Amino acid sequence: MNIQRRTIIGTSLAVLAGASLALAAPLSASAHVSASASSTAAGSYTIVTISVPHGVEAESTSIVTIEIPESIAGVTPTVNPNWTITKTLDGERVAEVVYTAIGAGLPTDQRDTFELSLQLPEGQPGDVVEFRTTQTSPTGATVVWEGDDVPSVVLTAASAVDGHSSGAGNDHNHSEEMTAEGINAEEVVAISAPIAANDTLGRVLGGAGLLLGAIALAISVVTRRTALGTAGSDSPTTSSTNNK
């Protein structure tokens, strides 16, 4: 009986181990360079993050080249302390951002991210903005992420909150410069009214708290004085008589 149980347990563990290996292989192979964005609204200013999860086959990655779509007028790469950054120009437009490793590069079992500040193009929800990316190893081997595997951002509907600036060609992010311009007066009032109401309520509650505190203090003082007076009246008195 014990032998049968051990056999069943051993067989089950072997099956589970085989299944784990079978699943791990495609998951490892499917890991690829991807893109994400802080905002996907058409025409919005955003930070696109290109994620590189591994090296080139059995080698490290020494160069990462990110192609910038023609629909994007300007781009500002974020400093990465492990890489130097250069831009390839097509006329006045940035066509590529190239990261070159400082040192040994990105190992095969580690990942890194590369951030680009830019304005997404105007477009319809569902439009795809592609960032074709190439990994290059120290020996010159390359992996190109394109076609079905291209890092990309899918546009969503434009939002009035994001706003659109006429300075789209400028090579920096204008998100910090956006103001309430374009929001109508009714929206400004709607936003300000709750803030004003909360401020007034806070002052009323604060004043009420101070008043209750003063009343409590007065009651405490009166109670103490009353207690002291009562204690004084109850104390025994002594009188001295002359002995004749």
Entry keywords:
2 helices; disordered C terminus; 32% helix; 244 residues; five-stranded antiparallel sheet; alpha+beta; four-stranded antiparallel sheet
Layout of SSEs?
Blueprint: H1 2-30, E1 34-37, E2 45-52, E3 63-67, E4 75-77, E5 83-90, E6 93-101, E7 112-119, E8 128-130, E9 133-136, E10 142-145, E11 152-154, H2 185-234
Antiparallel strand pairs: 1-2, 2-7, 3-6, 3-9, 4-7, 5-6, 8-11, 9-10
Brief summary of the model shown:
The chain has 244 residues and is of the alpha+beta class.
Description:
It is a single chain. By secondary structure, the chain is of the alpha+beta class. It is built from two helices and eleven strands, in the order αβββββββββββα. It has a five-stranded antiparallel beta sheet, with no helix packed on it. Strands 1-2-7-4 form a four-stranded antiparallel beta sheet, with no helix packed on it. It has a two-stranded antiparallel ribbon with strand order 8-11. The radius of gyration is 36 Å and the shape is elongated. The relative contact order is 0.14. The model is unreliable at 7-30, 164-202 and 235-244 (pLDDT under 50).
